[in-house]
Amino acid sequence: MFVCVCHAVTDKQIKQAVEAGCCSYREVRDCLQTGTTCGRCVPETRELINATLIELAPHTSQAA
C-alpha cells in the first residue's frame, strides 16, 4: 500500500529501509523522501518505523 503518494513510497519500502538499518524517521525520510512534500504521510511512516523496530527487537524473557 502506498504510504507517501507524493513520492510513491510503499509500506514495504519503509519496512525494508528499517530492516536495512534506518532507525529513525529522519533516516527513512533521507533515504526515501517520505514526508518532504505535503507531510500527510509522516504519522503513518512513524508508526510503521516503530512497529518494524519492535518486530526486529530481540525477544527477551523476564526472569524473576
Question: Would you mind describing this structure in some detail?
Answer:
The protein has helices spanning 11-19, 25-32, 42-56, and strands at 2-4, 9-10. The protein has one domain (2-56): BFD-like [2Fe-2S]-binding domain (Arc Repressor Mutant, subunit A, Orthogonal Bundle), CATH 1.10.10. The model has no long low-confidence stretch (mean pLDDT 93). The protein contains three helices and two strands, in the order ββααα. Strand 1 and strand 2 (9-10) form a beta hairpin. The longest helix is centred in the last third of the chain and has 15 residues, at 42-56. 50% of the residues lie in helices and 8% in strands. This is Bacterioferritin-associated ferredoxin. Its cofactor is [2Fe-2S] cluster. It comes from Agitococcus lubricus.
